[in-house]
Amino acid sequence: EEEYDVKDEL
Amino acid sequence: MNIFRLAGDMTHLASVLVLLLKIHTIKSCAGVSLKTQELYALVFATRYLDIVTDFISVYNTVMKLIFLGSSFSIVWYIRHHRVVRRSYDKDQDTFRHYLLMIPCMLLALFVHEKFTFKEVMWTFSLYLEAVAILPQLVLLQRTRNIDNLTGQYVFLLGAYRGLYIFNWIYRYFTEPHFVHWITWIAGVVQTLLYADFFYYYFESWKNNVRLQLPA
């Protein structure tokens, strides 16, 4: 599973 | 988390609190677009599907619950509260939701990063959030006298979007990252929609006159 950084945003 | 992201989230939280303050204490939703509020409730409901599947942090989960809870309770207040609903400008708030929802759904079905239910819903929420303020901006334009709290609510929402752009720029240069065209373009479009409002907001503030948007 690739890292998906904007998913930790609201 | 960087300072722009935190400031953006806090501004977003402040905007919701200002709106709840107006509705809860003044018992008025005059000048507030129910259409925009319903679109935001849909935005959060479709974006935060991961609240039950992925755990990111306590902060993340708590904020998601606040945005979900506040958006649905604002809609409830305007639709059902005995006193508040009487102040709703139904005849002015005529923007049709589906004109925004259908194109956003079609766009999400065709332009996304992964074709899974959760991912398409998440992408839909980004597109919809970008344009969800439009019914509110149209209503402001039709309202001759914009009260302070409503003006501050829209100003804080616009500031939140602007701060998120700085957050992405900061993250781009400081973190290993993927390129997120969809998030970035939707975010920039959303911020640009506030440009006109910001102009008149600062003009009224500078000249110390009541905010009024030209028809």
Automatic annotation (TrEMBL), chain B:
PROSITE patterns linked: ER_LUMEN_RECEPTOR_1 (PS00951), ER_LUMEN_RECEPTOR_2 (PS00952)
Location of this chain's protein in the cell: Endoplasmic reticulum membrane
Domain of life: Eukaryota
GO terms, molecular function: ER retention sequence binding
Classification via InterPro entries: ER_ret_rcpt
Lipid bilayer topology: Multi-pass membrane protein
Residue ranges of the TM segments: 55-78, 98-115, 121-140, 152-170, 182-202
GO terms under biological process: protein retention in ER lumen; protein transport; vesicle-mediated transport
A GO CC term attached to the entry: endoplasmic reticulum
Keyword annotations of the record: Endoplasmic reticulum, ER-Golgi transport, Membrane, Protein transport, Receptor, Signal, Transmembrane, Transmembrane helix, Transport
Signal peptide stretch: 1-31
Family to which the UniProt record says this protein belongs: Belongs to the ERD2 family.
PANTHER family in the cross-refs: ER LUMEN PROTEIN RETAINING RECEPTOR (PTHR10585)
Protein name: ER lumen protein-retaining receptor
High-level lineage: Eukaryota, Viridiplantae, Streptophyta, Embryophyta, Tracheophyta
